[in-house]
Amino acid sequence: MARITITLLDDESNALVQLAKRERRSPRQQAAILVRKQLRNLGMLPETILVQQSIDTEVSHDDRPTSES
């Protein structure tokens, strides 16, 4: 698995964090999902139901409170 570092503007970062919280994912998981969906929409990745289901069900089940809550 490759790692890529991206720089986001403050408003982009805030939006990503808010979406991740709403989807109950980490911001890293959410960013990976957004990139994959966009690549698929652009025809760069094939439509695969199995991969989509596994991505959509990746949810953090750690319900411990964090300092961000």
List the helices and strands and how they pair.
Blueprint: H1 10-23, H2 27-41, H3 49-56
Helix pairs in contact: 1-2
* Order of H and E elements: HHH
Name the helicity range.
Answer: 40-55%
**Strand segment count:** 0
Distance between the amino and carboxyl termini? 30 Å
Q: Taking Cα atoms only, what radius of gyration do you get, to the nearest Å?
A: 13 Å
Largest sheet: none
Q: Kindly report the average pLDDT value.
A: 81
Structure described in brief:
With 69 residues, this protein is an all-alpha fold. Helix content is 54%, strand content 0%.
Key features of this structure:
69 residues; mainly alpha; globular
Descriptive notes:
The protein is mostly helical and 69 residues long. The chain has a domain of 35 residues. Helix 1 packs across helix 2. The longest helix has 15 residues. The N and C termini lie far apart (30 Å). About 10% of the residues have low confidence.
